[in-house]
C-alpha cells in the first residue's frame, strides 16, 4: 500500500485559489509604474504555477549568481556575456528570468544566454536604445498598451496594421519600440507573473505590407520569435489552434523573460482574416476551418521557416470574422472600438507619457 504526504491548506489559500477561477479586470493592479503590492491571488498564482516562495526566491537567486560565475569561468562566450551584463545587477532583475523558468536555475541561465545572444546578433536594434529614441513610434500607436489588464492580469498590447506606413515607420523601428516598452513594463512584478497578450488586427493588411519587408528582416523576426518561445514559460501546449501567417507580429517576440503561467499563458491573438497569408501547416489550418483564400503565395518567406514545427508557435490564436471566442476572452469594456470593443480609441501620446514619463535611460 502506497503512502503519501499531505499538507493542510489554509482557508485563506483556498479562498485565493477560488478567486483565481473568477477574476475580472478590476482584480488587478495598475499596468504602468512599479507594483506597490501584489494582490493576494497573484501571490497564490506565483506559488502554485511558478513554485515561488520567499525561501525559494532567496535560494534561487543565490544559486543563479553562483552558476553565472561558474559557467563564465568555464570559458563559454555567451556565459561570459551573461556574467558581464548581469553579474552586478540587483536581485529583482534576476528574478525576472527565474520566474520565466519556474525557478529552474539552469533553464533561467539558458534564458539569459538567449537574451544576450539576441542583443549580440542584432546590435542595430539596441544602439542608442532610449525611451526618447522610440517615443515617436509609440506615440503613433505601435504598439498600444491598454491602461487596464485583462481578467487574467496580463498586460494587453495592441497592433493595428491597417494604417501602418512602412516608409514612415520602419520594421526595425517597431522592433526597437517593443524592446523598450516590454523591458519597461516588466519592471512591474505583477506583469512578470501574469505576462502579456498581444492582439494584432490585420484588417486592411495589403500586399504593400507583405512586399515591403525584406528577407533579412524576416530572419530577424524569426530569431525574435525563437527568443519569445524561450521566454514564455512552459505553457506551450495549452489551447493550440492554428498556426497561420508568417508575419504573426512585428515584434511580439520578446527578448526578455515573460511568464504567463499554465492557466493563461502569454498569447498572440490574430484578429480578422489575413487575405495574403502563408499557412505554416496547412493540415492544421484545414482542421481549423481556414479557407483557401487565406493561403497566399508568399513563397519568398518559406526559407525563413525551414525546419519549423508547430511547437515553435505555441500561443497563436486566429480569429477571423467570427469573434465569439475573442469576445469571451477579452472584456469589451477595455478594448477600443477599432478592436471591436466599447472603449474610446487610445490616446497614444498619453500612453507614452505613462510608460516613460521624462526618463531617458539607455537599455
TrEMBL record:
Residues 134-347 form the CRAL-TRIO domain. InterPro entries: CRAL-TRIO_dom (IPR001251), CRAL-TRIO_dom_sf (IPR036865), CRAL/TRIO_N_dom (IPR011074), CRAL/TRIO_N_dom_sf (IPR036273). Gene3D superfamilies: CRAL-TRIO lipid binding domain, N-terminal domain of phosphatidylinositol transfer protein sec14p. It comes from the Eukaryota. SUPFAM superfamilies: CRAL/TRIO domain, CRAL/TRIO N-terminal domain. PROSITE patterns: CRAL_TRIO. One of its GO terms (molecular function) is phosphatidylinositol bisphosphate binding. One of its GO terms (cellular component) is membrane. Coiled coil: none annotated. This is Retinaldehyde binding protein 1a. The lineage of its organism: Eukaryota, Metazoa, Chordata, Craniata, Vertebrata. The gene is rlbp1a.
